[in-house]
Specification:
5 helices, eleven-stranded mixed β-sheet, 36% strand, alpha+beta, 205 residues, Alpha-Beta Plaits, SH3 type barrels
Length: 205
């Protein structure tokens, strides 16, 4: 599927909400930026929000792509609250990063949704942060990622960005993980097989 920026003249299809220009609060209640754009898939479903952070009078802003699953709540009035903190948002790739990293002006993103067995939430998060993320960061075509979690629903969603499709495919099969981690992968505490979605985004300035 493709990811495209929703034109300013269009609004998300109901029951999806218009999120653009809303203030963005992190999980600690701090105002960290605002939603500048929404990225939708081929079906018109909102998949990512472009969180604009920093800058002065419109200059120097950084645009971080955050999966829609990171939104904990959306105030009908003027703001949204994320499940992640400011540091996590800043770790997500920026549009400028993606433009620089993509040799063919196309980025590849994989969104993985995992439903974790009761009582195994922290174990799964630890495996992602201590094994999966460092292994991914060692790959040449890995350009960034973000992890968001909903403990009440026992759900973890990861989004990883790659400048090459071949590396993306390898990530789906966990081919980049160190040998010692391959056995634990078969024993991950998941309630069901993970749901994997892949998208392409044409780099934009």
């Amino acid at each position: 599927m493709n990811l495209t920026r929703l034109p300013f003249t269009q609004h998300p299809r109901p029951p999806q909400r218009e999120l653009r220009q809303r203030g963005v609060f992190d999980s600690g209640g701090r105002l960290i930026g605002h939603v500048e754009n929404i990225y939708v898939d081929d079906d018109g479903t909102s998949r990512f929000v472009d969180v604009a952070m920093g800058g002065f009078m419109g200059l120097g802003k950084k645009h971080h792509l955050v999966p829609i699953e990171a939104i904990a709540e959306a105030d009908p009035g003027s703001s949204i609250t994320l499940r992640v903190d400011r540091r996590t948002v800043r770790s997500a790739p920026t549009l400028a990063d993606l433009c620089t990293a993509a040799p063919d002006e196309t980025m590849h993103v994989q969104v993985t949704t995992m439903r974790v067995l009761e009582g195994q939430f922290d174990r799964m998060l630890h495996f992602i942060e201590e094994v999966v993320r460092p292994a991914a960061e060692g790959q040449e075509e890995f350009t960034g990622g973000i992890v968001t979690s909903d403990r009440s629903a026992n759900k973890i969603v990861t989004a990883s960005w790659w400048s090459g499709e071949e590396s993306l495919q390898a990530s789906a099969g966990c081919e980049y993980l160190p040998e010692y981690a391959l056995a634990p992968v078969q024993l991950l505490p998941l309630a069901e097989p993970p749901e994997i979605e892949r998208y392409q985004l044409s780099a934009v300035p």
